[in-house]
Structures are given as C-alpha cells and as structure tokens.
Specification:
This protein is α/β, with parallel strands linked by helices. The chain has 19 helices and 17 strands. The structure holds nicotinamide-adenine-dinucleotide (NAD) and 1-(beta-D-ribofuranosyl)-1H-1,2,4-triazole-3-carboxamide.
Length: 500
C-alpha cells in the first residue's frame, strides 16, 4: 500500500493515527501546545461554540461516522471537536501536503480522534493519509467500514471514493486494474496505483463504502466546481451541500480570510517590503478581491488580470488597473494567482520575470503556476531558501531567478497558518449546520444526488452568532417597516437573488 515509505523516525504511526512526533516527549509537548492554542481559538470561534450550546445534550450527529479532508489546522481541530461534541465519530486527514499544523494534528490524536496528517507530506503519503481517513478500520467487535458523512475541501476524498468505485466496477466486469499511462500527472499515477493496490486486497471496498455515504459538505470553490461537474454528468453518488456559497462563507472566508492570510504568507516566507512594489493578482473573484485589497493596504501598486468583464469592472471601480499578464510580466515584483483555473503563469512567463520577483498561488490546487514546467529546468535551477520557499534560476547566464512560494500550492496555508479563527468560525459553522442537515435527512428523499446550498435563514443565523463577539447591536425592524419592505421581522432579510 502506498505510504509504506513513511519516515518512521519523524512520523508516529499507530492504528488510529499518523502524526509528526519523533518521541513520546515531543508528542506530549505538541499535544499541549495544540491544546493551548485550541483553547484560545475557541474564544475566537463564537459560531462553533454557539452550535455546541444550541445542541447541548441533543447529540444530533449521534451514530454518524464523519471523515474529513480539510487542512489540519487549529481552526479545523475546533470544528472536529464540535462535530464530536454533537455526537459524531470523527476521522481526519488534511487536504494539502503543506497545510497541517503539527501541534493541531497531535492534539487531535492525543484526544483520541483518528488523525492522519503532518506538515510536508509527500504526494504518496498524502494519498495514503486520505485512504486511512476513508477507512474506518475493523476492530474486535466491528468489521471495516467507511464514512457515512464527508467533510471535504477541494474534493479529494470524494474523488477517491468515486474513482475507487468506478475502477472496482471495471475490475468486476473484466478483471483489469486502472491503467497507469505516461500522460498522467505524478499525482494521478499515485491515485490510480493506490486504487489498483486497494482492489487487489479488497475488490469491493469503495463500492460498499460509497453506498454507506449519505452526503458530503464541500468547503471550497474548486471543490464545488468538481461536484457540479459530477452532478451534471449524472455521476455524483450522494447528495452534496455547497458550503462555499453560503454568504457567510464565500463573502467572508474567501475575501477577508485571504485579506489576512495572503500577506501573512508572503511576509513569513520572504519578509519583503510590499509597499511600493508592483503586484499582479490573477483572478478578481472573492479570493482575488481579498488578496488585492491586502496588497493595496500594504502599499503595493496593484493591478489585476481577469477574464470576466464584471469582475474587471469591479476592479476598475476600486481604482485597480486591469491588465494582461503578458503586458506586465517583466515589470511586476509580486504575482499572485487566485483563479481556481489552471495554466495561469507558465514557464515562458516566468523566464521573463524580474530578478527575485515573488510568485505565489492562493487558489486551491497547484496547477495555476506551471510547476511541471519549472521542474524541467532541472534540480540545479532549484535552490531551497527554506521550507516552502525556493529560488528558481530562470536565466542561468545572468543568474536571474524568481522566488516561488509553497511550491505553487496555496501559500497562505503553506507559508503561514491559513485564515484566522474568527473567519473560519463562520465557514465551519456552515459545515456543522450542513452535516447536521445531511444526517437528519439521511432516510428521506429531500436531497437527491445534486449540489445544494443552505437556506438563507441558516446563513443569517451564522452571521448573527458572530455579532456579539464584536459588540454589534442589530437594529430591529418595526412591524410596519417589515410589512413595508415585505420581509419577516426575524428574517430572512433579502431575496435569494440578492448578491451582497
Ligand atoms: P471565484 O470564481 O470567485 O474567482 C475566480 C476568478 O478568477 C473569477 O472571477 C474568474 O473570472 C477568474 N479567472 C478564471 N480564469 C482566469 C484566467 N485565466 N485569468 C484571469 N482570471 C481568471 O473563486 P474564488 O472563490 O475567488 O476562489 C478562487 C480559488 O481560491 C479557488 O481555487 C478556491 O477553491 C480557492 N480558495 C482558496 C482559499 C485559501 O485560503 N487559499 C480560500 C477560499 C478559496
Ligand atoms: N481554509 N482553512 C483555513 N485556517 O483552517 N484557512 C483557509 C484554516 C480553507 C478555506 O475555507 C478555503 O476555502 C480552503 O481552505 C481552500 O482549500
């Protein structure tokens, strides 16, 4: 099984967890550090704590086995413990090789929550961890089983189950294992090799597993794109709740979260003076807006690249130039990709960049920047400055190089610690509400194998739960005013068409 090559010296592997700790002493220290930060985070996560209070003694997730694939950070640990407090059994892995905070992962393992995650996993280890997260291992009294609910971020866990089941169907019909072809990416090769190995041990594992899943709640824009494509093709095997498009997620986490954690990542990685520099943000959606604003606030001269005329016009209204990458590539000092699309900055572009210009991505996957192209320059062109910060020599004759952050993966989680607790409390409150809803409706026909958003009442409730902490006092509509604008006094206050 992939993962056999896990570095046993630094990874502490037990049947119920695999986390980073070289010794018992380090495990204890990390667990304490994690717990101390968790205690602080809880105070900053009023939405999650309100949900714990709302459901106290009710255990609405009793009996649910939840597998989560979402950055194993301190904030996520508070989510995991909230799900547990609501009655669920929880099992976790990260959704990115660089995003785990080891003290958070160790604190979860020490608290008895099966966790398979450490910072700087290899791709092989990453998919091994995902596989462990999906596999609810057998013990003396129980047979091996799988999750009945999934929390996903980017869709890798959902993909593994879907592709695993598809491969098992092919295997059942003609005994062939997934073919590994030269045109596949390194990651695809690893995934299909893992599925092939799994089939040889248990040829119906994912088929059984997929039948037990009542639904998935998806955290991020890119994961939602994947789910919508699957649903449209009639291939989605269970219902999905699109947490990303709750207003209290996309319009807060993606915007204000990135406004905080983008500069955090750039500064921790490089400590470069942002003021005065020319920065290009590719993509002016929610993440691009937060990123561009952060760079403007830091004193950079910012421009954006967009394909969508509406987003382009929004940028102009904020006083931000809209340009084409090709026209500015040789002049900018910082380039950030935030499109959720692929192939945004290619090797030929990088060859034109200024010496020591910084290139980073904050979109979900690592294909916005042409890392495969950079790899063709050879190992001698790649200089590690420190973990997650590399200088690639793009012109050997003059030694001109560029600084690439987090190897093209989302730099706010690779070079820093992701979004802070308060904004993640909004995102994760939606996750909890979605999980409770999927579990409540597990026997009903309310949800088909489609992608749903949560009702506005719940979105407003999530926002409401965060006001007190910031000392806000909401104005209350009078009966007459409510009637005049045609809403209920207690909300929802806007029609579904309203865009915030
Ligand atoms: P979005 O759809 O709101 O914005 C993406 C924008 O990129 C769109 O406006 C689109 O028109 C534009 N775009 C697409 N192709 C382009 C191209 N070739 N050139 C220029 N612009 C292009 O999505 P979003 O919510 O902003 O999310 C963007 C990405 O960030 C997704 O992958 C999402 O999953 C991820 N995300 C990351 C974090 C994080 O913490 N790092 C947080 C939230 C979302
Ligand atoms: N994200 N999580 C964190 N601190 O745990 N920070 C950012 C954290 C999520 C965010 O919700 C986004 O949609 C997703 O990471 C992209 O993978």
């Amino acid at each position: 099984m992939p993962g056999q090559d896990i570095d046993q010296k630094s990874i502490r592997q037990r049947p119920n967890y695999a986390v980073s700790a070289k010794s018992d002493e380090e495990f204890k220290q990390l667990a304490k550090f994690g717990r101390d930060e968790l205690d602080i985070a809880e105070v900053e996560m009023p939405g999650l704590i309100a949900l714990r209070e709302q459901y106290e003694g009710k255990k609405p997730l009793k009996g649910a086995r939840i597998s989560g694939s979402l950055h194993m950070t301190i904030q996520t640990a508070v989510l995991m413990e909230t799900l547990k407090e609501l009655g669920a059994s929880v099992r976790w892995c990260s959704c990115n090789v660089f995003s785990t905070q080891d003290h958070a992962a160790v604190a979860m393992a020490a608290a008895g929550i099966p966790t398979f995650a450490w910072k700087r996993e290899s791709l092989r280890e990453y998919w091994w961890c995902t596989y462990q997260c999906a596999t609810w291992a057998a013990d003396d009294s129980k047979e091996e089983t799988g999750p009945n609910l999934i929390v996903d971020d980017g869709g890798d866990l959902t993909l593994l189950i879907h592709e695993g089941r598809r491969a098992e169907e092919i295997y059942a019909s003609n005994q062939t294992l997934p073919e590994i072809t030269a045109s596949m990416s390194d990651e695809e090769k690893i995934v299909y090799e893992l599925i092939g190995n799994s089939i040889q041990v248990d040829p119906t594992k994912f088929t059984r597993m997929s039948k037990g899943v009542f639904g998935v709640s998806e955290e991020t824009t890119t994961g939602v794109h994947r789910l919508v494509q699957m649903a449209n093709a009639g291939k989605l095997l269970f219902p999905a709740i699109n947490v990303n498009d709750s207003v209290t997620k996309a319009k807060f986490d993606n915007v204000y979260g990135c406004r905080h954690s983008l500069p955090d990542g750039i500064m921790r990685a490089t400590d470069v003076m942002i003021a005065g520099k020319r920065a290009l943000v590719c993509g002016y959606g929610d993440v691009g807006k937060g990123s561009a604003q952060a760079l403007v606030n830091a004193g950079a001269r910012v421009c954006v690249a967009e394909v969508d005329p509406i987003c382009a016009l929004q940028a102009l209204m904020e006083g931000i130039d809209v340009v084409r990458l090709a026209d500015v590539i040789s002049d900018v000092d910082i380039i950030i990709t935030a499109t959720g699309n692929k192939g945004i900055v290619m090797l030929d572009d990088m060859k034109k960049m200024k010496n020591n210009a910084i290139l980073g991505n904050i979109g979900h996957f690592d294909n916005e920047i042409d890392m495969a192209g950079l790899a063709t320059l050879g190992e001698e062109a790649k200089h590690k400055i420190k973990d997650e910060v590399h200088r690639f020599i793009v012109d050997p004759e003059t030694n001109r190089g560029i600084i690439v952050l987090a190897e093209g993966r989302l730099l706010n989680l690779g070079c820093a610690t992701g979004h802070p607790s308060f904004v993640m409390s909004c995102s994760f409150s939606n996750q909890v509400v979605a999980q409770v809803e999927l579990w409540k409706e597990k026997g009903s026909t309310k949800y088909k194998n489609q992608v749903y958003v949560l009702p506005k009442e719940l979105d407003e409730a999530v926002a409401r739960a965060h006001l007190g902490k910031l000392g806000a006092k909401l104005t209350v509509l009078t009966d007459e005013q409510a009637k005049y604008i045609g809403v209920k006094k207690e909300g929802p206050y806007k029609p579904d068409t309203y865009r915030y």
